[in-house]
Amino acid sequence: MKTNSRRDLTRRRAVFSICALAAVGVLLLFVIRGGVGGAASTLFSPLASVQHWLRTSSATLPMYLRTQQALIGEVRALEEMLAARERDSARTAYLQAENAQLREALVMPTQTHLLAHVLMRPPHIPYDSVLIDRGADDGIVEGAAVYADRDVAIGTVAAVYAQSAVVRLVSAPGTTATAYVFGPDIFTETEGMGGGVLRILVPQGIPLEVGDVVVLPAGGAGVYGEVAEVEALASSPYQYGYVTAPVSLSSLRTVRVAAEPLPTVSYESAREVIETASSTQFHVAVPDAVLIGTSTAPVEE
Amino acid sequence: MRFIYALLVMFFSLVVPWWLVVPLWVGYALLGTTYELIVLGVLLDAYLSAGAPYPLYYTITAFVIVLGMLWLKPRMSFFRTE
Question: Could you tell me which chain A residue has the CA closest to the CA of B47?
């Protein structure tokens, strides 16, 4: 019996220690998360960089550790990516020039963007966040917008450490944003649902359909995505539209981060962004010598 | 030796998807009363959960695993000493 009571006492002490440690941890997370996060970044940033190196580097050891099939798949994907990039290079140059002109017209300062590699992304982490390999040492600031393909804002920098930063996606639970929906042509609020999905709330009677294009005016002129599903219950005065992310989060490899925090966008600026998005959707960078029938193209006789 | 295991667990907690972290931590918790798992959970939540309203996924997981192992191990024949 003495042995049992001593064992019980030891176990009770262990339970108490575990509960106390967890309580202190939770308190730290809610009170001084930034400080604890900074200390954690000192520990985890090198590890995250190593795992990124093992996954993506072409050095001997990472290559040896990856399977042949994975390498073949990677080569094919890179070849396809290279072919697509070569096709789009002229179009990109045209769009960049037009974007610069439009930004001047919108009185929005031209921002320099920093390219950052994604170290960790969903589903590796349970939060709708992305860890990038740029931090305060590289000029990353909190609140800066983060862009994926085609000037589409996917989130903002939520925490900055010395050599890394955490980007909170616009689709993270609890995050809201203002969106414009083409089709019904309405402004509405979005709510993050996690997993790269936004939910928009629209009153019944407004014709919301699958395929309606959604733009987030505060994040630039890029199209965020399309309505993938509409949920309309007859008993509810509202209908929900679910908008999927413009890029697959699991394949997100690089992002561009603005050098300054996201500026406040006025309603007038938002309207101009929307007009830009709607008027440039079908533009293709055709060289002037080939394009026939415009005022700038020479006409062959 | 346990320190090396702890470092390996810390590294693989970042490498593997979050849902594989659970069996990894369960395996580590079989070594003993691993308070450091809770510390690791708190640090991971602080590092990765910026902006999230409830930054407790890793902490709660570690707490449940450590407490659960404390209850389960005396009932497992592998760990019985009598």
Answer: A37
